[in-house]
Amino acid sequence: MNDGANCSYRALYKYLNLVKDNDNSKVRPFHSSSATEVYVDMLLYAILEVNEKKQQFVSYIWVTLRWFDDDIKWDREYFCDIWKIYPPSDVLWTPDLTIEEMIEDNKVSMSPYVTLDFYGYVTLQRNMVVVSSCSMEVYKFPFDVQNCKLSFKSIAHSYENLEITNLADSQWTMEWSLKRMTQSEWLFVNLNISEEVVGERNGEQNKLIYTITMKRRSALYIANFLLPIMFFLGLDLASFGISDSGGEKLGFKVTVLLAVTVMQLILNDILPASSDRIPLIAIYCIGVFGLMMLSLVETILMMYLLGKDAAAEENREDEEQRRNLKKRTSADESPAEQLSVAKEGDSCKPTAESIALENISDELRDVEKTLTRVLNGRKKGNKAGCWTRVAEKVNIVFIITYVIAVIVFLIVLFLQWTKDDE
């Protein structure tokens, strides 16, 4: 160690002129008019929120900035082997980097210090809660994969004055983030780093772009949304076993249809209104709703056709009752006339014969009515009405077509959900 070494930190600060409002805090470090190279490293600690409705991505990151300043290095042997100090950040020049997609100020307090080593390398570290805009594609919701970008660039400096370069390898950054990240609804898949030069008002500027790829956990959406709608569709298929003669089937189908409508309202609160394509889950809900509505219309048609046959049957019964009434009236008059003729021809016969004859005629009429009722009942059981036969045929054709349409619709939708994007 040098005998004339100074072991005081204050002496080192004074030697480097690290006081407020010094020249080092105002002027960008440069050499031979070359650009100042700033190394950036971003580590992703957590994915706090992904809001599809607002198209916002909220992340918690740790950013490290490092650059070289030849004017503030020292000989550590002269200062008792002091190789690193932590001066306030306001006594040194710091790069004016910002995140292009950030739409809200950082809510985490910044560290007031930087790290300075004897080589002249300055390191600035800060943790940030970044609320950024992110264009999200929800076509395959809830099996979607999102890519959100965080682009670092200078506010004022052009590419000729400040060059932004990645500090660490992207693979190392991704592995480090995976080890320390708590996975919630979104699974962190990949982190890609790229550089881009764009033309701005201040000339060409250098951008360092971190692309975060994440995949949604879809199990909860399957259990709480997709499966209930599938169950409603299954109930609608099972309702074909309910008789069309009463109103129970119609009420049941309307109730199931209203349940699907409630699920659509819930979906409307999740998905953004500005999507380029209609999401597959919306097509799923609309398709199931349309199939169930067709089933409801078919039920109404069946009830209408059966009602026409029931009305015709009622008309026939009324007509039969009127005919029977006429027959009964004529039959009641015939014995009386016979009795009067008999009385006129032979007034000496006893009255008991006339009474017996009237009783016999009544019994014969009762037997005739019973036989007529039995024969009519057999005819009705063996042969249905015309509209009833039409309704039965239409119902069979519709059930077969309906089942085929449901199977084809679900298969096509599943293939679209599982198809890889080109």
Automatic annotation (TrEMBL):
Q: Which residues form the Neurotransmitter-gated ion-channel transmembrane domain?
A: 243-317
User: Which chain regions cross the lipid bilayer?
Assistant: 219-238, 279-306, 396-417
Its main localization is membrane
Which InterPro entries is this protein grouped with? LGIC_TM_5-HT3 (IPR049944), Neur_chan_lig-bd (IPR006202), Neur_chan_lig-bd_sf (IPR036734), Neur_channel (IPR006201), Neuro-gated_channel_TM_sf (IPR036719), Neuro_actylchol_rec (IPR038050), Neurotrans-gated_channel_TM (IPR006029), Neurotransmitter_ion_chnl_CS (IPR018000)
The segment annotated Disordered runs over 316-347
Q: Does the keyword Transmembrane helix apply?
A: yes
Q: Give the residue range of the signal peptide.
A: none
Q: Which catalysed reactions does the entry list for this protein? A: Ca(2+)(in) = Ca(2+)(out); Na(+)(in) = Na(+)(out); K(+)(in) = K(+)(out)
Q: Which SUPFAM superfamilies match?
A: Neurotransmitter-gated ion-channel transmembrane pore, Nicotinic receptor ligand binding domain-like
Q: State a single Pfam family of this protein.
A: Neur_chan_memb
For membrane topology, the record states:
Multi-pass membrane protein
Q: Which GO terms describe its cellular component?
A: postsynaptic membrane
**What keywords were assigned to this record?**
Cell membrane, Disulfide bond, Glycoprotein, Ion channel, Ion transport, Ligand-gated ion channel, Membrane, Postsynaptic cell membrane, Receptor, Signal, Synapse, Transmembrane, Transmembrane helix, Transport
Which GO molecular function, any one, fits this protein according to its record?
extracellular ligand-gated monoatomic ion channel activity
The record's subcellular locations are: Postsynaptic cell membrane
Neurotransmitter-gated ion-channel ligand-binding domain: residues covered: 22-217
Q: What does this protein do?
A: Forms serotonin (5-hydroxytryptamine/5-HT3)-activated cation-selective channel complexes, which when activated cause fast, depolarizing responses in neurons.
Family, similarity comment: Belongs to the ligand-gated ion channel (TC 1.A.9) family.
Q: What name is this protein filed under?
A: 5-hydroxytryptamine receptor 3A-like
Organism source for this protein? Gasterosteus aculeatus aculeatus (three-spined stickleback)
Lineage of origin: Eukaryota, Metazoa, Chordata, Craniata, Vertebrata
